């Protein structure tokens, strides 16, 4: 077993092979760059989803003869 400190906590992992959960935990909490990268990716996906949904909402609720532009 190996100990991996995360802040003030100490988490113990067993060496039973690499799983996808180990990959994501290492990516998120392995270093600050990995966590920052994942935050940027999720924020970007959230913004894209919001803008896409807002565009569809505005397209569905606008009238065809709207001349206020």
UniProtKB/TrEMBL annotation:
Keywords: Membrane, Transmembrane, Transmembrane helix. InterPro entries: DUF3149. The chain crosses the membrane at residues 32-57. This is DUF3149 domain-containing protein. It comes from Enterovibrio nigricans DSM 22720.
